[in-house]
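Page 47, continued from p. 46.
Same chain as before, 184 aa.
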Amino acid sequence: MSDQNRPRLIEVDDSALIMIDLQEKLWAVMAEKERVRDNAVRLAKFAQIVKLPVVLTEQENLGSTLSEIDAEGTGAPKIGKICFDCFGEPAFVNRLESLRRRVLILAGIEAHICVLQTALSALDKYQVHVVADACGSRGPHNHELALDRLRQSGAVITTTETVIYELLRRAGTPEFRAALKLVK
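Result:
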């Protein structure tokens, strides 16, 4: 995607939330795992408030998606995968194409493997926002270096709260009032 086509601010009707491999077995060994889970859940809840499409992936043999995310009822089908890069899975590519969005908001684990590879692959076609506080790795050093590499490659590194307020755009709406519960 050329720079002139990239929106300055992300918009609900042009974005999709991609939740990568937020699975029980993998989450159990993450550094700062509570932060990752809590922010991923906040994003899933917020997606429901603003009707943001969600795409969930599950890496083979790593268990189910975290029950707290499943409980949000995003309605998103889970796309199984064996590739680290989600774009290596035809079902993932087909789902994104059907959504017709230009902005991908990524959260998940591990930051330096599946999130990194997926984001790097997406950069040619999409504006990519990686939600740093909703991503994790087994070691903090891997997380930090993945974010540095993504930033250098052109991805926007952001936070859960930034995404929420950027997509809301204004106070005083029913969506804003519902989202306030997530950020307080």
